[in-house]
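Continuing the series of single-chain predictions for the mutant panel. This is the parent chain; the variants come on the following pages.
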Amino acid sequence: MTTLTVQHSGKVVRVSGQVASDTRVNATYTPTPGASDGLLPVDGVVTFIPGPRTNFDTLLSSAHHILSHYRRSEPGTTWGCDGIGYIAQKRSGQVIVNMSGVGPRKFAQGEQDRANCPTCTA
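Parent structure:
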């Protein structure tokens, strides 16, 4: 299994790792002239059909598990590998998932929780 790296900068926790690239994800762009989402015009729709579960998906799942040990000290979000990000990252083999709103104290608590996690230390 590939090692994941955890970094904390400002109030953002980043979990990242690298596996072999995988092009077995089919993404298509369908232009939809004149369409709207109800508020704004929409140029088109991106749809994708995931390929088979691979080392990338396993690593992504592990990255989300690691992030589950951190709590936010203020409002924030998790981003980096959903939708188009998933397609781009799977094709490159690089997993990057970020969580914002995690201050230094909550990060230190998360590190301690992660060190005591039987799944993370296995």
